[in-house]
From TrEMBL:
Source species taxonomy: Eukaryota, Viridiplantae, Streptophyta, Embryophyta, Tracheophyta
Identification of the protein by name: Reverse transcriptase zinc-binding domain
InterPro entries associated with the record: RNase_H-like_dom_plant, RNaseH_domain, RT_dom, RVT-Znf
One family name in Pfam for this protein: zf-RVT
Highest rank taxon of the organism: Eukaryota
Key words, A-Z: Nucleotidyltransferase, RNA-directed DNA polymerase, Transferase
Domain Reverse transcriptase: residue ranges: 340-639
Organism: Arabidopsis thaliana x Arabidopsis arenosa
PROSITE patterns: RT_POL
MF annotations from Gene Ontology: nucleic acid binding; RNA-directed DNA polymerase activity; RNA-DNA hybrid ribonuclease activity
Length: 1233
């Protein structure tokens, strides 16, 4: 289908003129979707029509060639070439129809479906341990394994598509053969279902869609997505350096090798001394020791399992799934060789051989410059790289300047976007900035590929890294060799002398270490006055540059001196590092009042021809006008393009739900993290998603059975858990504010504080004068945070009495006596000597009703600052999920209509907990929500239709009648053996009958058919009703039940019974019955707490035993007032630690039965609610020579548990025993065995 359609699909297919509204594009989109076609790949300028208006030019893509997936499958190499405009206002279009591409020998690629076949494990074991080969290297084992797997695949039919055709043919013959047994037919159908699932897995891996989980079959979607991606990425020709087109895989590969070999060849760096003179050694001896610690097998395994299982493999053909699944076979040899590398600093160069995959940077690439070379590394090399990365990440924040935000834990891309936006806003509206300053945005050409290895090595030395660490890094960098992948086939082999591989986990971190040299040069220039950075307000930080990996933005005074010095820094840095600035893609944004003569001088000095700004920084608009919806229209277009793609027609209901939640909602998230989207745009996207859910495309109007507002309620309340974008936007912005509150030392926080709340609080800051849109957006997030944020008291010095700091729901300040000043700090209520609440001060300043609440707040003995906590999460940390829940629920009122299931939350909860096919869950949800096309439901929506049941013609067609009380349904339910006095009795409600089926499900063992049969019966009743209504096909009760039984058996045998062994294994693992003794030379302190929610009182106990199990000491005590059970548990641990120290123990294991607390301590996880307790624990642990914190199950913590319960019910507050008390004797003796 080709020609002049005189219409466009998306607003971004038009340049110039008025913006097209979304509604005006619906008709053409509907036509494209109904025909199931999409554009062919094209070359040239796709703006095929050009029209001249009085003051401007309008271009649009109205001439196009489209085809459906079947046509593309027959002619996979076809494309369109748009030629130059000559006389007509339309570009000529040449459609090149090609059936096949050039063939070549495809490399071995491990098929992850083989992991499901038990025989393959034996093949792998034999190949890995083949006694006929030399086992000196892992590479030889890998080659042998590859050969054995290939041989096995040739001897066995692993083509599931071919197997499906064979089985369908067998089933057809068996069905018509009277002599075929039922068991044979059942076995064939089981094999067919298995083949379908294997086919789905195959296409899922190839489609690179990681968001869609297996459940209902989505094979057609995966197949279509794969074919579309392959067609889009196919490389048929390339333009050579002389401008002549090159065709054929081998010729293209030759050109690729020439280009990338030149790119990866060193240019001999110069002036290293000048560039590196300002680098200071920042890596301490302690840091180096931590980096050089001995590598463990656990660390190697962790690194392997951190690699995506189905990510594209390296030249050896094995992805991470192979190594992960067969780790018990391959693990020991791999661990040995990885450890050898870290001992010797060298490995076989073939480990580091890499396939270069060429990814287009633009829609229609012409030359090799238009491709990004992504390195596909071998998994065994990635293990080493991942280990180095994990260690390096832990020290980067102290090594790299605060101006670099990429890849460093605790720093975020959004910080740079906010800072840049604030500066651009000041350049436009703030008089001083607008008159004297400018922003320079540079584009670095092939940034990773040009890094000089010598420069990298010198940077590592200057930073102070140990020689052995540098050797490890440089071995990984210098031993690389490349082959180029052209349409999936590797060609040639060449080596490099510079460059960092994109695709190597280590490369981004090495790159930011190199770019930190540029940062140090700029910082020094700012300190010496050679460059003057911009301040958006008095007292704020001077900002000269922002870096995010290879994205660079510079702020300085707009004059010749600053420009000349900046250019000098660029040149010195480029000569040393190999980096090259692409001046044609760089741009300058001048302050709005900078004189034109000054602009001309600066542009001439910097040799940058573009001014006015690049429009976007890190993917988001730099500046905003009044028409904000137009600025964000690209988000709507992106969501529209994703969910209206013709492949999505093949998705099941469960697949659609996952697409919406995992993809459609993810697309605007980045923008919503920084800016408040206009409500109109949010409503437009919400409507688009709703139309997609109920229909096939987002444009075509379908009957919406349930309102969008009801569908955004949680599943347990009867909705589907979809998100309202406006409220989601607020939760994301609140998350940004929360991060700033936790990092007041960050550059962004310091800048905002100086500009908007110099003497105040961010949460209560006002709008300010002429605020930026970014600040207005953050204040929108603050509105939500104020609902649930409180201060957690440490020393009380930074919290005022009038702030919300009481742990109530919602948080609030205490009720103060009339004479109390609310601006007094909370520390005035704390005794400075005892560090406890001062009873006299409390009585003088606080209303007596709030004093008991304050007494329950724990005060640490050490000096710990106050902090913010979020009251709607267990650990006190703000999450987007909890923020969204807060935003959604606070806007509800009693008048808000609720979904039908909301009146029966038990049904909604039980429904989604069923372990049944996803399509059945969605069917049950629609049925219970009255959202299926029954006559009764249609009549409720004023649709005129015959109201009677199509089968019995005597009763109205309601859900209860069709599924339970129709004679057809009654005869089926009787045959199932269920209690028909409940499910077929019209006196019981439809909801009661569902409750009965859920009860049957819970009471029936997982391996029994009757657990699942009722739900498949409902499904088949619905299918037989539809066959009768729409196809005039009468399916009798016996056949309906047989179909339901066959469905249930397939689900049971192919899903449930295959899951059961893994579930049983998980239940049985590592659970011991008795208390475990400590090692010789150690003692163990078990602790526990018994908490009463009604009054907050807690009993606590601890017991210390030696390596023989003998009791040394124990204690029990009663705390009056702890807010939560976890606070009581922490108090018990602190008391146990303090007692152990006082008793003289220095090598000790502390063991409790609260897994969350143990993990928080051992992994140093954030828990703001317990922050004061945890910091006290960390201070005390440093006093011990050797200390461990272990988790144990309650059964193995029985002694401490008994002590805690005894304390909770006793009268005395504290008891310390130096021998075993009588009530504990039998239990201690029992555990000592």
């Amino acid at each position: 289908m080709c020609g002049d359609f005189n219409e466009i699909l998306n607003a971004n297919e038009k340049k110039g003129g008025r913006l097209r509204e979304n509604w005006s594009l619906i008709d053409f989109r509907n036509m494209v979707n109904i025909c199931k076609v999409s554009d062919l790949p094209f070359q040239g300028n796709n703006m095929t029509w050009l029209g001249k208006r009085r003051t401007h030019i309008v271009e649009s893509w109205i001439d196009r060639a489209m085809a459906n997936d079947q046509w593309k499958a027959h002619f996979p190499a076809s494309e369109v070439e748009y030629l130059e405009l000559i006389e007509s206002d339309h570009r000529p279009a040449i459609i090149k129809i090609r059936r096949t591409t050039e063939k070549g020998t495809r490399p071995f690629l491990f098929d992850t479906r083989l992991c499901k076949i038990p025989e393959v494990e034996l093949v792998v074991k034999n190949g890995w341990n083949d006694t006929s080969t030399n086992f000196s290297t892992v590479l030889e084992r890998i080659r042998t394994c590859r050969h054995e797997i290939s041989r096995w695949k040739r001897e066995n039919n692993t083509n599931s598509a071919k197997r499906i055709k064979e089985l369908i043919s067998f089933i057809d013959k068996a069905t018509t053969d009277p002599g075929t047994s039922t068991e044979t037919l059942r076995r064939l159908r089981r094999e067919l279902l298995f083949a379908y699932r294997e086919e789905e897995r195959y296409w899922k891996v190839k489609s690179r869609n990681q968001w869609l989980n297996e459940g209902d079959l989505n094979t057609r979607y995966f197949h279509a997505a794969t074919k579309n991606r392959i067609a889009r990425n196919r490389l048929t020709s390339i333009q050579g350096p002389d401008g002549v087109d090159i065709f054929g895989n081998k010729n293209i590969a030759t050109e690729a090798q020439r280009y990338f070999s030149d790119l990866f060849t060193s240019s001999t760096p110069r002036n290293l001394t000048a560039a590196l003179q300002h680098i200071k050694p920042v890596v301490s001896t302690e840091v180096n020791e931590s980096l050089l610690q001995e590598i463990t097998t656990y660390e190697i395994r962790q690194a392997l399992f951190a690699i995506g299982a189905t990510r594209a493999p390296g030249p050896d053909g094995f992805n991470a799934a192979f190594y992960q699944h067969y780790w018990n076979i391959v693990g020991p040899a791999i661990s040995t060789e990885v450890k050898r590398f870290f001992r010797t600093g060298s490995f076989d160069k073939d480990w580091n051989h890499t396939n270069l995959c060429l990814i287009p940077k633009i829609k229609q690439p012409k030359t090799m410059k238009d491709f990004r070379p992504i390195s596909l590394c071998n998994v065994i090399y990635k293990i080493i790289s991942k280990i180095l990365v994990k260690r390096l990440k832990s020290v980067l924040s102290s090594v790299v300047s605060e101006n670099q935000a990429a890849f460093i834990p605790g720093r975020h891309i959004t910080d740079n976007v906010f800072i840049a936006h604030e500066v651009f806003h000041s350049l436009r509206v703030k008089k001083r900035c607008a008159k004297d300053y400018m922003a320079v945005k540079t584009d670095i050409s092939k940034a990773y590929d040009r890094i000089e290895w010598r420069f990298l090595e010198e940077v590592l030395k200057k930073k102070g890294f140990a020689n052995q660490w540098i050797q490890w890094i440089m071995t990984c960098v210098r031993t690389v060799s490349f082959s180029v992948l052209i349409n999936g086939i590797p060609y040639g082999r060449f080596e490099a002398t510079r460059g960092l591989r994109q695709g190597d986990p280590l490369s981004p971190y090495l790159f930011i270490l190199c770019s930190d040299v540029l940062s140090s040069m700029l910082t020094n220039a700012q300190m010496t006055g050679e460059i003057k950075g911009i301040r958006v307000s008095n007292g704020g930080p001077a900002i000269s540059h922002l870096l995010f990996a290879d994205d660079s933005l510079f702020f300085l005074k707009a004059d010749r001196k600053n420009s000349s010095n900046l250019l000098k820094i660029f040149e010195e840095y480029g000569e040393a590092s190999g980096q090259m600035i692409n001046l044609d893609k760089s741009a300058i944004t001048f302050g709005s009042h900078v004189y034109q003569s000054t602009r001309d001088h600066v542009m001439q000095t910097l040799k940058i021809p573009n001014s006015g700004g690049g429009g976007k920084y890190l993917g988001l608009p730099e500046q905003f006008g009044r028409k904000k919806k137009e600025m964000f229209q690209f988000i709507s277009d992106s969501v529209q393009g994703k969910i209206s793609g013709w492949q999505t027609k093949f998705l099941t209901a469960a697949g659609k739900e996952t697409l919406i939640k995992s993809v459609a909602y993810a697309m605007p998230v980045y923008s919503m993290n920084v800016f408040q989207l206009p409500k109109e745009l949010c409503s437009e996207i919400n409507s688009m998603i709703a139309r997609f859910w109920w229909g096939t495309t987002p444009d075509k109007k379908k009957l919406s059975w349930v309102s969008w507002q009801k569908m955004t309620t949680p599943k347990k309340q009867g909705g589907l858990g979809f998100r309202d974008l406006h409220q989601f936007n607020q939760a994301l912005l609140a998350s940004q504010v929360w991060k700033l509150l936790q990092r007041p030392e960050s550059l962004l926080y310091r800048m905002l504080k100086a500009r908007y709340f110099r003497n105040g609080n961010m949460l209560t800051a006002t709008r300010g004068t002429r605020p930026s849109y970014g600040w207005s957006s953050l204040r929108f997030g603050c509105e939500l945070l104020r609902v649930g944020t409180q201060k957690n008291i440490g020393d009380g010095r930074s919290t005022k009495l009038g702030e919300p700091w009481l742990p109530t729901n919602p948080p609030r300040p205490p009720a103060l006596l009339p004479t109390t000043d609310p601006d007094v700090n909370v520390c005035s209520l704390i005794n400075p000597v005892t560090h406890q609440w001062d009873e006299d001060k409390l009585s003088e300043m606080i209303n007596q009703n709030d004093i008991p609440i304050i007494w329950k707040i724990y005060l640490p003995q050490a000096q710990i600052s106050d902090s913010y906590i979020w009251s709607h999460t267990k650990d006190g940390c703000f999450t987007v999920k909890s923020g969204y829940w807060t935003a959604a629920t606070r806007n509800l009122d009693d008048a808000t209509p609720s979904p039908p299931l909301a009146a029966n939350p038990d049904i909604a909860t039980s429904l989604w907990q069923l372990n049944i096919a996803p399509k059945l869950k969605h069917f049950l949800w629609r049925t219970a929500s009255r959202a299926i096309g029954l006559a009764d439901n249609l009549r409720r929506r004023n649709i005129i239709i015959n109201p009677y049941c199509a089968r019995c013609c005597t009763e109205f067609e309601t859900g209860d009648h069709v599924f339970f009380s129709c004679p057809h349904a009654v005869s089926i339910w009787r045959a199932t053996g269920l209690d028909t006095t409940i499910i077929c009795d019209q006196n019981h409600s439809f909801e009661d009958k569902l409750r009965y089926l859920f009860t049957v499900y819970k009471a029936t063992p997982p391996e029994e058919l009757n657990r699942y049969l009722p739900f498949w019966t409902l499904w088949r009743l619905w299918k037989s009703r539809n066959d009768l209504v729409f196809n005039r096909s009468m399916i009798d009760a016996i056949d309906t039940l047989n179909y339901a039984t066959a469905d249930a058996k397939e689900w049971l045998e192919n899903v449930i019974l295959k899951e059961k062994p893994h579930v049983e294994l998980a239940r049985q693992r590592g659970r011991r019955d008795n208390w475990l003794k400590p090692e010789r030379g150690w003692v163990k302190c078990n602790y526990d707490a018994s908490h009463r929610d009604e009054d907050g009182d807690s009993g606590m106990g601890w017991i210390i035993r030696d390596s023989h199990g003998s009791l040394l000491h124990c204690g029990l005590g009663k705390f009056e007032g702890r807010m939560t059970a976890e606070e009581a548990e922490c108090s018990a641990l602190i008391w146990g630690i303090q007692a152990s120290w006082a008793l003289g123990y220095r090598s000790i294991v502390f063991e409790g039965d609260n897994k969350n607390i143990t993990r928080t301590i051992t992994d140093n996880l954030p828990n703001l609610r317990l922050r004061t307790y945890l910091q006290t624990i960390q201070l005390w642990r440093s006093n011990f020579t050797n200390v461990k914190f272990n988790f144990t199950h309650r059964e193995q913590n029985a002694c401490a548990d008994l002590l805690a319960k005894k304390a909770a019910t006793g009268l005395s507050l504290w008891n310390l025993y130096h021998s075993c008390p009588p009530f504990l004797m039998s239990l201690v003796n029992c555990e000592c065995v």
